[in-house]
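Question:
When you can, review this sequence-structure pair and walk me through the tokens.
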Amino acid sequence: MKTILPAITCFVCFIVISPVHAQKRELRSIERADLETHMKFLASDELQGRATGEPGLDIAARYLAVQAARIGLQPADGDRDYLQYYSILEGEIDWNGSAVTIREQGRDPVVSQDHFFVLPSAGHDSLVIEGEIVFAGYGIMDEKNGYNDLEGIDIRDKVVLIMNRGPMNETGDEALFDNEKWNSMQCLQYKMQALYSRQPKAVLQVFDPKSGIRSIEDINPRIADYLGKSRGLKMEDTGLQAQEDRPKMILIHRNLADLILEGTGRDLARLQQEIDRNMTPRSFHLEGKQIRIAMRTREREMMVPNVFGMIEGSDPQRRDEVVIYTAHFDHVGTDNSGAVFNGADDNASGTVALIEIAEAFMKEKKHPPRGIGFLWVSGEEIGLFGSEYFAANPLVPAENIAAVINLDMVGRTKTRKDAESGRDLTIVGGDSVKVIGALQSRVLMEINEQTLREMGMQGNYTYNDRNHPERYFYRSDHINFARKDIPVLFYSTGTHTDYHQVTDDEERIDYDKFLKMTRLAFKVGFNVARYRDPIAVDNPFSLW
């Protein structure tokens, strides 16, 4: 026994430790130089910002398909070319056929040609909204501060005019509620919940006079251009995706707000001053006035690709289960002057990481027990369409998808410029990583936390809250899988000063952090793929 025991011990140790050695070997195979090579191409000017529906995106898709074939991934699509095409219908506002008309008893109609923008998307059909008008101040109901713009007025089946933000100081740079500056997204979310519950026909939002902004076009013409288009996914089995049945929110020009209030004896600036001075609402029904909002659209159909390849699992009992990595490879194109939004961090970083992770898995002498899928999706920047389509039409059975690991913006770390910007940025520094997901599965959260410890990294869970006002849980491709009750993890280093700017270039990637993030993502997927038991879903999204 004394002579046999050491041999048995060594054999057992080899069985237990050899996968760890393999992990270390394959982790080291993910190298900075390879990340740089792929990044320099995908974030180059030649791809013209990889906008969905444009030639640069098709070039990127072909590049990814070539990489998938080179690595040795298995195609799962019918044509076996790694490409899954789907259709997006895009409606662009025809401004020549769109206008707002104000009618008042005893006066000639007044027509405004100033641009307006409808949210949510008005779909691909023309839109007409008509009704009486109510001015509702800031559109706020705030019990904490004893302020209610909707008290004493009926907005049901009416068109409601509100200002953005909330009661402000004299200079308009500080909110009067708790002396805190308002987060515009949070403010808007809460306003819409209160307003929609009272069933208006539409909500017109105008920038308040103290903001100094007259239109969304004053802030960024690209935002206006984006909002001037409505997009929807054309599903093969159901036709055009149904639009959400709720009132429209319409961003309007200050000129139109002044036309609406004309003849009431009060203009928008005076109303704001009265509200802010006394913290008292000044809401009222505009008697005898009607508004008609008419929008005409032009339509085009875009055929765009996702890219998908996979590695078969090695365990006969678990090989049909698949862990899918996903990253969007589209970005936002160019601006009106031709400047390119290269989207190096957003999201060439996640796109490149998947190439390197796939290659690392292929270098394993034995594949993990579960299969590994690699999904590069398009259409994220215009509505998460690529992941929505794949989730509805998966190239592997949906019930076999064990987990989804999403990478979106994983190539930067917090800089002094970010810290001093004064903007509400989410970027993390050092060895921190922004983690969202695993709310549906305790097992997946445990694997995530264990892997972070193994890699010497710290998870930042600030935004891992489905009710957080910034709603990051819903703002990347993982959400379309979560809605199918598939457990998800989403890793990011966060938003920075170059987010959606032409300065998001390859030169600003922090390759040390990028390398750590890519290796972390590989290790997480490795651990999920090797987990012996099912990835149990104990808190499914469908029950939230």
Q: What stands out?
A: The radius of gyration is 26 Å.
